[in-house]
Design a protein that fits this description.
By secondary structure, this protein is α/β, with parallel strands linked by helices. It folds into 2 domains: 37 residues, no CATH class; 163 residues, Aldolase class I (TIM Barrel, Alpha-Beta Barrel). Helix content is 42%, strand content 16%. The protein has 12 helices and 8 strands. Strands 1-2-3-4-5-6-7-8 form an 8-stranded parallel beta barrel, surrounded by 6 helices. α1 runs parallel beside α12, α6 crosses α8 and α8 runs parallel beside α9. The radius of gyration is 17 Å and the shape is globular. It binds 1,3-dihydroxyacetonephosphate. The site of 1,3-dihydroxyacetonephosphate (13P) has 14 residues, from β8. 1,3-dihydroxyacetonephosphate (13P) binds next to β8.
Amino acid sequence: MAKLLVGNWKMNGLKASLAEASLIAASAAAAKSHAIQLAICPPATLLASLSEAVSGTGLLTGAQDCHEKVSGAHTGDISAAMIQDAGGYFVIVGHSERRADHHETSAVVRAKAQAGLDAGLVPIICVGETRAEREAGQAEAIVLGQVDGSVPDTFPAEGLVIAYEPVWAIGTGLVPSAVDVAAMHRAIHQRLVDRFGSAGASVRLLYGGSVNGGNAGELLHLDHVDGALVGGASLTADGFLKILHAIQE
Ligand code: 13P
């Protein structure tokens, strides 16, 4: 299975940022020859122009959220079909910032993931525990509960991605130990295999939370870690490509 490196630009990026994406796109073909797939999820305002700018390079694009409904009176929201129409391949759903800021429950996240699948997108479903939950020894129970609640009942082979992003590791420079990351990824895969059989094993599991060029080599070579979801370090081509180079070695 190819490794997947996805940049989540969050609420960052203006038209000038397309230049960074083009620099990243220039490395997409070389990455592919090392069995590494690159993707950028810019803010919705840039999705169409960025997708067009990198079209044909092998760099995939995606959105950071979608509405669960196909269309209708939902001011300010974006449907999965709109994302597909704008050139998106992935849609991130259930990021902890959306679960926290917009009170998204796992049931809502599951509906959004289903909407993405229905539109032909590949959902990247985010799960992760808070610091208090980890300190209380509940990390695995919380994460597996989110997996149970957020993953739709059917999906195409390799058509679904899950990102394990401990909330306390996002944007903090803190990263769980390799042992803890490996244990959580193994537990998630096991849970998926229990529910879906071999289809569960084909779900790619990304790690996210303070990934950079310095720690990516170790994290992305762990068993059951199929790639990374990268925030801050994906905002510049330099930061993102350092991660690529670390895992190409
Ligand atoms: P950072 O890489 O900035 O910690 O963000 C991780 C993240 O939330 C990606 O979705």
